[in-house]
Specification:
By secondary structure, this protein is an alpha+beta fold. The chain is built from eleven helices and eleven strands. The termini are far apart.
């Protein structure tokens, strides 16, 4: 079960189940088994400004007609099978699939003949449009996303990992986790689900040394802050795709990977002057990492050792 630490609804009451589905944006058409169900209807929901996650579990058959939403939804089946009807086409969504995408302003229905467990990802449409515009360096870009396929499981994995980390993250790391995961998921959606549209655009012009220098200076000066594609476009004055291409050719990494290198170097410097074990957590927070676990893993990969205060007092060996 996902999102266990977030507000939940647990009920076997048919009327409460139907009311909960309608309150979540579902239409008046909800078909549930006749009589009282012995299965619990369970919902956990984590809602943030640009993205949201909902885990829904119900082991009885159910069919739901859904109202159009202003946001884009992707359903990741955790167990059993859903049959999603969208624009007259039935899409089977199974555990092995990369998800089923519901575009904004599209009515749809879902039939779960044996119940279901699903993680629903909500992404604000305007956020995706803004990021796509920053990627291409163009205004009023049409957002055209295709259905996920087998190669897009990386988006499914990123969403599931986000849900799992939300359950265990230290609350002081929560803003960084949400910001980093939002950027990661949105970028994966654009690069995975609209790559044909991106490829149809002309190759981005190469940024000048001055333009790319602004980006490098900004990252170093603001290493503790989240880095978005909008920021890359605004600071450089060119499309974010141009910046990505330059960083790959010059540093063999993305701007976000370059940012993590800077964060790790700064955390190393911070730990040089510390002797308290709690300073590891403080360094991770101050350097913008999304969790202590992620920081420790990245630090070990970079420096070949655990992050520890360099001035920590160690027991002295007794002379014989």
């Amino acid at each position: 079960m996902l999102l266990r630490s977030y507000p939940e609804l647990r009920t076997r009451n048919r009327d409460v189940v139907e009311a909960a589905l309608k309150a979540s944006g579902y239409s008046t058409r909800v078909e549930l088994p006749a009589g009282s169900s012995t299965d619990k209807f369970i919902v956990h929901k984590a809602a943030f400004k640009e993205v949201g996650l909902s885990f829904i579990r119900y082991d009885s058959p159910v069919r739901i007609d859904v109202n159009p939403s202003n946001d884009i939804l992707i359903g990741f089946q955790i167990r059993k099978v859903s049959e999603v009807a969208l624009h007259g086409q039935v899409i089977e969504n199974t555990v092995s699939d990369a998800g089923c995408l519901i575009p904004n302003q599209s009515p749809w229905s879902v039939r779960n003949p044996a119940g279901y467990q699903v993680l629903m990802l909500r992404v604000a449409t305007e956020s995706l449009r803004r990021k796509l515009s920053a990627l291409l360096g163009a205004d009023h870009v049409r957002l055209d996303l295709r259905q996920p396929s087998g190669v897009d499981r990386i988006l499914r994995d990123a969403s599931l990992n986000f849900a799992r980390e939300l359950d265990v993250v230290d609350r002081k790391f929560l803003p960084a986790l949400v910001a980093n995961s939002t950027e990661d998921i949105c970028n994966r959606m654009l690069t995975c689900l609209s790559e044909q549209y991106l490829e149809a655009e002309r190759s981005p012009a190469a940024p000048s040394a001055v333009q790319i220098g602004r980006v490098e200076q900004f990252i170093v000066a603001n290493y503790a802050k989240p880095l978005t594609v909008e920021t890359l476009a605004e600071i450089s004055g060119v499309s974010a795709r141009s910046v990505f291409r330059h960083f790959r050719s010059r540093y063999d990494c993305t701007p976000h990977q370059y940012l993590e290198r800077i964060r790790l170097e700064m955390s190393y410097v911070k730990l040089l002057a510390c002797r308290d074990q709690n300073s590891v957590r403080t360094a991770a927070l101050e350097c913008g990492f999304q969790s202590l676990r992620h920081f420790e893993q990245a630090y070990r990969n970079q420096f070949g050792e655990r992050p520890v205060p360099k001035l920590i007092d160690r027991p002295r060996r007794r002379r014989r």
